Each structure stands twice: as C-alpha cells, then as structure tokens.
Amino acid sequence: MKKHTIETHLEVFDLVSELSEDIQKLMIKAHEARENAYAPYSHFKVGAALQLESGKIIQGNNQENAAFPSGLCAERVAVYQAGALFPGETIVNLAISARSLKQVLTTPIAPCGGCRQALAEYEVNQKTPIAIYFMGESGKVMKSNSVNDLLPLMFDGSSL
Ligand code: THU
C-alpha cells in the first residue's frame, strides 16, 4: 500500500474590493442573478455569472420545484445555458453568490458536488481552467483556480 496525498489550492480575499475590476463586475452579475432565483422551498438564493472568452456574461440562478429533485442549482443553470447558446466557447471565470432568507451568510458558499462535476465536463473539454470565485451575501471571497482544484479525482469521459 502506498499513501497518495492530493493538494488543493484556494485563495481567500477578505473583501470584494480586493478583486480585479472585471471580477467585481462579474460578482455583481452573480448578485443580480441571485435575487431572481426561484427558491420558495429552501429560501436559499444562489446566483452564478460565467464570463466567456469573448467577454459575454451568462447568468443563472437556482430554480426549485415542488418535486424537489427536479430543481436545478444556479451553477448548472448558467453552464448549461452557456453550452446551449454558445457551444464551444471557452469559459474563463465563474462568480457565485449565495443569500439565505433565514440567516446572513458571511462565509463563502462553495458549489455543490453535482455542480462541480457538471463544470468539470466543460473544463476538461476546453482544456483550459475555469477560475471560480464564490461568496455569501457579504464577507470573504474564495477563489479556486480551476474546477480540478475543487474536484480532485474528477470523473471524466476518457474511460467511457
Ligand atoms: N444550490 C445552488 O444553486 N448551488 C449550489 O451549489 C448549492 C445549492 C441551491 C439548490 C437549492 O435550490 C438551494 O440552493 C438549497 O440547496
């Protein structure tokens, strides 16, 4: 038996104002999208904004459903929209913002495992990393330089 250690790297920004202007704008798009989330069951609103290499910004938010598993997370709404409208265009950055109607979220809210896997498909295909910035309603912002850093040992299509 051999032990294998996987390292992952994150950057933490104390304030949104420490981010570049471009990323601050992208985060504002994520906040805007978040407020339009349809989250009557969880009261937990998430917004996502993807920046494509052309500069286009694609927004998404969580869409819940009375049949709970039929709902979809903000990140997947955004990435599937990008895939549907701009197939093959490289995704450069993703900003994610979450707000709970039950408590003030001041710590970064990381994307769920299912969304990491969905994003991984696009990162693997485009062969360049997607930088992911995530936060709560206020406070620190975390940055992952790639989906790979958030999902080590990801499953990809190479063995299918
Ligand atoms: N949610 C997202 O939109 N993204 C995530 O990464 C985590 C969870 C949504 C799904 C559901 O509508 C609500 O947040 C509570 O789980």
UniProtKB/TrEMBL annotation:
Family matches, as Gene3D superfamilies: Cytidine Deaminase, domain 2 (3.40.140.10)
Reactions catalysed according to its record: cytidine + H2O + H(+) = uridine + NH4(+); 2'-deoxycytidine + H2O + H(+) = 2'-deoxyuridine + NH4(+)
Key word Cytoplasm present: no
Swiss-Prot/TrEMBL keywords: Hydrolase, Metal-binding, Zinc
One Pfam family it belongs to: dCMP_cyt_deam_1
Residues of the active site: E75
Enzyme class: hydrolase
EC number: 3.5.4.5
SUPFAM superfamilies in alphabetical order: Cytidine deaminase-like
Similarity comment: Belongs to the cytidine and deoxycytidylate deaminase family.
Protein name (database record): Cytidine deaminase
